[in-house]
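Can't paste images in this forum, so I'm doing it all in text. The chain is below; anyone willing to post the predicted structure tokens underneath?
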Amino acid sequence: MPTGDNELVEQAAAGDAEAFRVLLERHYDGIFRLAYRFVGTRADAEDIAQDICIGLVDRLGSFRSEAKFTTWLYRIVLNACRDWGRRQASGQRAMANFADVDDLRRAADADRASQLEWVWTTLGQFPDEIRETAVLVLAQQLSHGEVASVLGVKESTVSWRMHELRKTLKQRADEER
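Text version of the structure:
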């Protein structure tokens, strides 16, 4: 078994699994330590080191013996840490954006709840037949034909009641603005 990094890289790039194993055993701790110094957490450093080791098989063919293997390898670690940092920053921006969207959603939900409360309060001021029709159409989402069957009226009566309801709700909303 060759002992120099360059020989191990050559053989590992040619498909020698044992040479690759020796290379990883020799350099894994250095990969991990360097990643840890950049990212600051053991779990993230382990993830980065494992990702590098997995990808190293494919990258060995691009190693040129012009520099030391460790110099080349540490450049890969540094780039992986930079990528990790960009993903973290992107994730933090996404979380901030999510928080903004969630705040807007909550405000919209509160506004919608306020509007619904107004509709139901106002609906209570209508005659029973219009209120019943509205509940079946709006809350139960039944078709006008289905509501007509439930109430024992013509479908056109349901449509007229809903028209009157919308017209009156719009007038009252305009008056309150």
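The chain has two domains: 5-94, 124-176. The helical segments are 5-13, 17-39, 42-59, 69-123, 128-139, 144-151, 155-176.
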